[in-house]
């Protein structure tokens, strides 16, 4: 089981994770964080052993079996313009990647919201927000990590594109410590963003650890699909894609799903 005292011992943050709400079972940590958003302070973390209605992007389902993963949401309240805030997803991705690196696990970032180990997804991030007039009211960053899941925990559809840290390392991973390490990284990368919109370090990490740069990918928007080559992630955090006709496009996070030419990646 997760242990709030142990998590706290490993935290070196000033506000991320200083208030945590723990659930043995919950529908969705993102939904709970949204319900609490107005009454709780920035940095509040909602964490659950199990989600019964975990969510991915575009209303897809996120598998979150009991006691085997880290399923949590962080409440953020950046006072930034609307067009900047959707980039918070990249902070989550960079933070998870850095925390895994500190544990000796080599992972890659699949822009903008997934973490990949050995070609399969170990972590997904779902950022949801609420808008005021031209500013954001709050952002909920939901992070799901397959920590100690076994191959049998995945159903057939997910198994070909998903894996867990235990499957790739052959070892049970201590979840409390990993969670604290991720929260520490989130605060480090989020603080300059909150204070002055600065995402430099985050984007550096997303670029350096990108699994997409240099690859031909399928870009899926609704029913339409295009093939392009990923050239870069620019200083705004947008994916720079070149199509066969030479046209170059900068893609905003959230508007597409990206897949490898043949398989998941
Ligand atoms: P993508 O980023 O791949 O477009 P989403 O962010 O929408 O996808 O994530 C939802 C998808 O991830 C689901 O449709 C399912 O195929 C897959 N999935 C669901 N649960 C898990 C999990 N625990 N680990 C890895 N993949 C999962």
Task: Report on this structure.
The protein is α+β, with helices and mostly antiparallel strands. The protein folds into two domains: 205 residues, BirA Bifunctional Protein, domain 2 (2-Layer Sandwich), CATH 3.30.930.10; 45 residues, SH3 type barrels. 28% of the residues lie in helices and 28% in strands. It has eight helices and twelve strands. The strands form two sheets. A seven-stranded mixed β-sheet has the order 1-2-3-7-6-5-4, sandwiched between helices. The chain has a five-stranded antiparallel β-sheet with strand order 11-10-9-8-12. The two termini are 33 Å apart. The model has no long low-confidence stretch (mean pLDDT 96). The structure holds adenosine-5'-diphosphate. Adenosine-5'-diphosphate binds next to β6 and β7.
